[in-house]
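Researcher: Re-running this chain for the archive, since the previous output was lost when a drive failed. Same request as before.
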Amino acid sequence: MVAVPARRLKLLRQALGTDADRVQLIVMTELGRNPASILAAWAAFIAAAPAGTALRGIGEPVWPGRTDDEIAECQLHEALLNLAVAPDTPLWLRCPYDAAALPTGAVVDAAHLSHPLLTHTQADSGSHSYGGAHHASTQLGAALPPAPDDTRSLRFARAQLRDVRTLVLEQSARAGLDDDRSDDLALAVHELATNSVRHGGGRRTLRVWQTAGGVVCEVQDRGVVADPLVGRREVSDQAEGGRGVWLDAGPRHDQRSLAVPQQERPQRAPVTPCAATSHRDPLRAGAPAATVQPRSGADGGGR
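Model: Regenerated structure tokens:
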């Protein structure tokens, strides 16, 4: 499975020729709009293969043009994928970073924290900065940036769930969202608010504000999400619980809204989502690997 931006898929198809039909090719800029959807895509790829099959994958979640907030969510997802894929899974998964085009060295440096194996041009090396589960926990516990001064806030309980939806729809209309996108965002935030009422432990607050790219909604309460992968595993129709968070964070909202529940962090549903993945290599069982290579031009190669 290869998930990279469309322009790179075109080059890959040309290079593979008739063999391209043997590879699952996915446009990462579509799949990766919501980072919570990517983990489920890799899980489905693994589950579809016969037991013991050696699997190969390439994922480019961080491409030039990502915003800082999007990149932060991509880095979180990469750390979580290390926890989601069992160490004995026969999966070789690499992530190319376009070091020449990404904005700062900090983006590439962050890859060292979630990938114990690195490739620079033709040389493989171990990452002395690899953080493993501790890095994932740190990412989950990090505070989100503060909301802006013009944020609309609403304290709510069960009786105010209708008001939650009304506020989101009002702010979506002010931001110029069409009816379908507004309804999807209102549904996602309503699910977050309902989960907060049921499990959040009190002090529930909705905050909504506009950005240059759309609308951001934040649901905050006193609860703690104990499962770091909540909302990132697909939930069956027969499951008794968990579908609300999957509805928010799953592929239904990959193009319209994003709700990523995070341990000890507020839950936000921005209209403009982002992407992430992570990478494993047979050189070390269960070890992720990042390929960090300068490229010639926006469509340059990589490994």
